[in-house]
Amino acid sequence: MSVASIIQEVAAIQGQSATLTALGLKRAFADAPESLPELPCIVNVPGKAKRAWPATSGLRSVEHEIHMQLFMGRSDLPTADKAAKQWITAMMDLFDQNVTLGGNVTMAGVTAYEYGKLAYGAVEYLGVDCTLTASERTQVAYHA
């Protein structure tokens, strides 16, 4: 499974979530948009990846980090602050209920988050950057 495919599935899960919709989610992006047309929105981007090496015979093991960046409005900071904090548990719960990302990975879950300012382009937003770690195990045929 490619990292692009994993991010597509993450965005699809977010976009179909009744909980995130109830919190006001306007859109979940799998590909970075030119700008952020509607808030709140989530932009999913790849982070670090770690591959176990040397590999187990016939098995490639990769731990992908996906940054699920939630961007909130800035006009009413106290309201945005209160709303942003609700998203943290909602994102953890959502991926605790979708640990294989539709069968695309062995295991996935929110492993970290950072609350505060997030920049997109030249604009700063209040937001939460949730790190989703997705474990991929793929059978491969290694050749000498």
Secondary-structure arrangement, i.e. CATH architecture: 2-Layer Sandwich
Following the backbone from N to C, one meets helices and strands in this order, namely: HHEEEHEE
Shape: elongated
* Helicity range: 25-40%
The N- and C-terminal alpha carbons lie at a distance of 23 Å
Task: Kindly report the average pLDDT value.
Answer: 91
Total helices: the number is: 3
Strand tally: 5
Largest sheet: 5 strands, mixed
Task: Write structural notes for this entry.
With 144 residues, this protein is α+β, with helices and mostly antiparallel strands. Helix content is 26%, strand content 41%. It has helices spanning 3-15, 18-22, 77-96; strands spanning 27-29, 41-51, 59-72, 107-120, 123-139. The chain has a 5-stranded mixed sheet, covered by helices on one side. β2 (41-51) and β3 (59-72) form a beta hairpin. The radius of gyration is 16 Å and the shape is elongated.
